[in-house]
Write a structure and sequence with these properties.
about 230 residues; mainly alpha; two-stranded antiparallel sheet
C-alpha cells in the first residue's frame, strides 16, 4: 500500500472511530457540536483531525451516519437471495433492510435536524442518495427519464415510510411493512396507468410532442450538473 492509500485508509479509520463514538451521545444530544466534542474525547482522535473530517460538526456526523446505513443496506442486499422476488418485492426488501439496520432515535434526531430550512436540501439529497443506492443495488440500467422518475418515486415512498416507521410501535414494525406494501402498490397502479396511456393511440398522438422532448433527457454523468440531452 503506497503512502497515499495508507493516509486515506487512516483518515477513513479515524472517521469511523469518531462516528461510532458519537452514536450513544447523538441519541441524547442530537447530531450536534456537543456530540462531536464528546466523540472526539471518547475516540481519542485529536480535535484538529476531527474538525477536518467533520468540518460542519453535527451535520456532517448525521450525513456520515446516513451514508453508513446506505452502505450496510447495499451489502445486505447483495448477500440476499432475490430470485424468488418480483421487482416490487425486491424494492420492499431493500427498504426493510435499510430501516432494520438503523436506530430509530438516531434517525429521529437526524430527521429533526434535516427538517430545518437551512438543512432541508441536504436531507433531500440524502433521501435521493438512498433511492439511487437501492436502484443501483437492484441492477437498474436506465439512462433516460426513467432514471429520474424511478428515484423520485422511490424517494417519496422511502421518506413517507421512514416517517411512519419512526412512530410505529407494532411488533417487529409490522405496521410499517404493511404501510410500505400499500405505497408500493400505489406506485405499481400508477405505472400500469402510464403504460396504458402510452399504448393508447389517441393519447400517444396527443403526447407525441411532449414525449419527444422527454426522450432527450439522460441520466447524469459524472461531470453533469444535473443532466444532459442528446445532441
Amino acid at each position: 500500500m503506497d503512502d497515499k492509500n495508507t493516509a486515506e485508509h487512516s483518515m477513513e479509520a479515524a472517521k469511523s472511530l469518531i462516528l461510532q463514538a458519537a452514536l450513544p451521545h447523538a441519541a441524547f444530544d442530537g447530531w450536534s457540536e456537543t456530540t462531536l466534542h464528546a466523540a472526539l474525547t471518547d475516540s481519542g482522535i485529536v480535535p484538529g483531525l476531527g474538525r477536518a473530517l467533520f468540518p460542519r460538526g453535527g451535520i456532517d456526523l448525521a450525513v456520515a451516519y446516513h451514508q453508513l446505513g446506505d452502505h450496510a443496506m447495499t451489502e445486505a442486499l447483495a448477500a440476499a437471495d432475490l430470485t424468488a422476488l418480483r421487482y416490487t418485492g425486491r424494492v420492499a426488501l431493500a427498504i426493510k433492510l435499510r430501516l432494520s439496520g438503523a436506530d430509530k432515535e438516531l434517525v429521529r434526531r437526524g430527521t429533526t435536524l434535516f427538517s430545518l430550512p437551512h438543512h432541508a436540501p441536504e436531507g433531500a439529497k440524502l433521501i435521493w442518495g438512498t433511492s439511487d443506492a437501492i436502484w443501483k443495488a437492484l441492477g437498474d440500467t436506465s439512462n433516460d427519464l426513467n432514471w429520474y422518475s424511478k428515484r423520485a418515486t422511490l424517494s417519496a415512498v422511502y421518506s413517507t415510510t421512514v416517517l411512519f416507521w419512526l412512530g410505529d410501535q407494532s411488533d417487529d414494525n409490522a405496521d410499517t411493512w404493511a404501510f410500505l406494501d400499500r405505497r408500493l402498490a400505489n406506485v405499481t397502479t400508477f405505472e400500469k396507468t402510464k403504460t396504458a396511456i402510452n399504448n393508447n393511440p389517441i393519447a400517444k398522438a396527443l403526447l407525441a410532442g411532449p414525449l419527444k422532448l422527454l426522450e432527450k433527457i439522460r441520466a447524469p454523468q459524472p461531470h453533469d450538473l444535473p443532466g444532459q440531452t442528446k445532441q
